[in-house]
Amino acid sequence: MSAALRYSLQQPGTPGFVLEVPQGGVTRAHLPDPQSKARFIAAVAKARCGEGEALELLGEQVDAIGSAARARLLRRVGVLSPSVALITNLNAWENISLPAAYHGSPAPERVAEITQEVLPALVDEPLALLARLPEQLNTLQRRVVAFVRLLVVGPELAVIDGVDEGLSRDECACVARFETEYRARHPSGTLLSSRAGSCTRPRCIS
Amino acid sequence: MLRALREIEGGLKLSLNVVGRMGRLRRAPIRESFLRQVYFTGVTAATGVVLRASVLGVLIIAITMDVLDADTDLAVKILLLLVFREIGPLAAAVVVILRTGTAISAEVAMMRISGQTRALRHLGIDLYDYIVVPRVAGVMLATVVLTFYVQFLAVLGGLLFSPLIIDATFMELAGRFSALFAPVDFFYSTIKALLFGFAIAACCCYHGLNPPNLTQNAVPQVVTRAVTQSAMLTLGINAVFAYIVFGILFFGLVTAKV
């Protein structure tokens, strides 16, 4: 099976690591420390490597591509981080449907269908939530809205980065369902769920 | 010096991008953002602030006519040359800078700082399309409408107020004004208002998208720079435009009737 993502970090003075995520399926990666995880997420989110890093994303070496190719590559990758950035002057539904409305696909009916299927499984009062602005949502609700938006975009590689950070046990149980929901809608896509742990080598559970 | 050159280069690049992407306004989310901008810049400003700006125009006419001991002819010339051509568009531009310029620069800077622009890039949404084009187009349209509104109120106020200071009736002043008024005055105001709107919105978007750093402390700096440069650009455009159209360069593109 080919790799959807190959990343390596070699820093002087710290143990480096190599991460390889196979295409398709769900992979959970426990990265050595929060700094390494932040560097990894930044590299994937920008499709750009810093010093000591090497990244191959969906078969492309990010160092060898131009800005247009990088922009195209970024459209195939989705990152959901704890500090999800929703557009503040749009309500939850407008945030979810924004990419589809801009690109003209998927159709609005498909966006509504995905939202109707996913949202009630993850939050209470989904209809009321859709009408609220991001500032009126709690942390879990913001992450759920960003996740539904990610599902609508349907990237080939979705990286879910520590979305359970700062949540209660019940809320963590809710975000744990993200993987199943992604898998159900994008069977051929790759999902990488990353966490920082106190280990020297990344652990991948596929 | 280097920063100034970079800002000029960035401003020109942004302006050219906006001009080339005006067709994107047809897309639903961009059109909605454009309409929202027109509402916030044009409709919400059309009550208190613009009325006060118009009263300022009336006061200028009253004081000028009193000081110059004006007759009917001079009063109407002041109304046309000063109030209609210059103060109307400038007053509208000042309102737009103070109300909309500050809001746009702060909002866009916050979007940049809070990672919303990065999220848009990830969704494959071009920042020029979603952030800059609707704001620039919306502000241009709203500035033109506000300019007409200020001109109408200021000229009407001047025509109503002048008979209290000089020996002339409202009908005499209105008749003389309509005789002197030429279509060029209308086009002159419209083009100038469009240029003002473009310069203000483009300048504020540029500074919003390029804060000095990505902390909350950058927002006041962005707003200060955006407002200062918008005001300087507006005054510069006003001077150059008046000089080219009515000035001595090439003997003026237009010869004023007055």
Q: Enumerate how many helices of chain B there are, as a single number.
A: 9
Class inferred from helices and paired strands of chain B? mainly alpha
Q: Helix share of residues of chain A?
A: 40-55%
Radius of gyration of chain B, whole Å: 20 Å
Strand order of the largest sheet of chain A: 6-7-8-3-9
Average per-residue pLDDT of chain B, rounded, comes to: 88
What does this structure look like?
The complex is a heterodimer of chains A (206) and B (258). Chain A has 206 residues and is an alpha/beta fold. Helix content of chain A is 41%, strand content 22%. Chain A has a 5-stranded mixed beta sheet, with helices on both faces. A 4-stranded antiparallel beta sheet of chain A has the order 2-1-4-5, with helices on one face. In chain A, a hairpin with a 2-residue loop joins β4 and β5. The C terminus of chain A is likely disordered. With 258 residues, chain B is an all-alpha fold. Chain B contains 9 helices and no strands. Chains A and B meet through α2, β6 and α3 of A and α2, α4 and α5 of B.
